[in-house]
Amino acid sequence: MLDDTDARILLALDSDPRSPVVELAARLRLARKTVQTRLARLEGVLRPHTERVPPRELGYAVAALVTAEVAQAELASVVRGLRAIPEVLEAAATTGEGDIVCRVVAADPEDLYRVGQQILACPGIQRTSTVVLLRDLVPYRTAPLLQQHLRRHERSAAARQAGGST
Prior knowledge:
This protein is α+β, with helices and mostly antiparallel strands.
């Protein structure tokens, strides 16, 4: 689990991702070794750089959510099949309508049809439903969560300090 020091380092890197460790340490008023150790530990937590590349920059102008109904006994082969389709960016098990939701990309509507057919051809998938995403209104983000984490920590530290001074 990340602590407030990790959160401060990550937020600082958002504003300047190429910041040298020494500069980062000075800006955050932390020891260089602390920043270095934390960054090394965070390497196992952070998403790979390739996940930062917008699919649009690779020629995938269409994004969609594909909901799939799955034969539960074949879930493992469904997951293997979905992993084999490069345009499936992520897939998650869900409750409610459908069993799996996939975020997919395609070059154009015709290509989206092809991707949908590939998904439908995965052993164990019985039916799919596709919703085209017109525009990202709130792109994937975690900075607000890190900021909220820091605010909570600061409030609880202030409350402990106020409680101890009376």
